[in-house]
Specification:
Helix content: over 70%
Number of domains: 2
Largest sheet: none
Strand content: under 5%
Number of helices: 7
């Protein structure tokens, strides 16, 4: 999945924002941000959420951007009527659900790590919880 190209298209075509603006908001260099958009850097869930907030959308919107464009195009240009459209949307929904499931698993794991770290800090500082 090319998340960076989705981010670039949303930034350029939907939001009309400069690359330098987004980089500044993320507190990284323009080059580092360009690496994200060019899929040359790994992106964490937290970073994806930050970018989504700057672009005024959700992480899920970024992840499924190309699929949504394709579904829209196929719906408009479908020569088989509604039956073909329904099949396209059903396939897209199963992919979307898989992505949501994976993101939820990542988020839960991240929260578990955060809780464990907080518990350790409380114990180190002898604070009851």
């Amino acid at each position: 999945m090319k998340i960076g190209s989705n981010i670039r298209e949303i930034r350029e075509f939907e939001k009309n924002l400069k690359r330098s603006y987004v980089a500044e908001k993320l507190k990284i260099t323009t080059r580092a941000y360009a690496n994200i958009e060019n899929d040359m850097a790994n992106i964490t869930l937290d970073r994806l959420e930050e970018i989504a907030n700057i672009l005024g959308c959700t992480p899920l919107y970024i992840l499924t951007y190309k699929e949504k464009k394709r579904d829209f195009y196929n719906t408009i240009h479908n020569n088989n009527g509604n039956q073909g459209t329904i099949k396209i949307n059903q396939a897209s929904n199963s992919v979307t659900l898989g992505i949501i499931y994976d993101l939820q698993k990542e988020l839960i794991e991240s929260e578990r790590k955060r809780i464990k770290l907080l518990e350790e800090l409380l114990k180190e500082n002898k604070i009851e919880f």
